[in-house]
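Bench notes, afternoon.
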Amino acid sequence: MSLVKITVIIPTYNEIENIDSMLRAVRSAVPDAELLVVDDNSPDGTGQQAEKTAKEIGRVRVLHRPGKEGLGTAYRDAFKLVLDGDTDVIITMDADFSHDPQTIPLFLQAINNGAEIVVGSRYIKDGMSVNWPLHRLLLSKW
């Protein structure tokens, strides 16, 4: 399969401290990908910072939503936008670096080798959670 278009979806809410470096890290990992930030009207200015970074690195769209509508609807809205276009591969990332952008090329390699779906998990053999406090690790297992 030849990858024609890759879109990386990054939902955000109050990620001003991470969004610039996350967008740059994703751009570095997959230079040809389109990045789609879905911001829930973050009061800390995340959406505005994403717009600023977009002007610097290119191929970034920012979907500004009117309020805190939640992660599920952020993905729904993003998928609707992306699936109405010509994207071949959709990748989802958390803006807080709990998903390492450097793993994206491994996922794309699996797709190029014939996989139709690739799922990353911190719970598989050799999976890990980076920079998570103990309470978050425990809650994520529930």
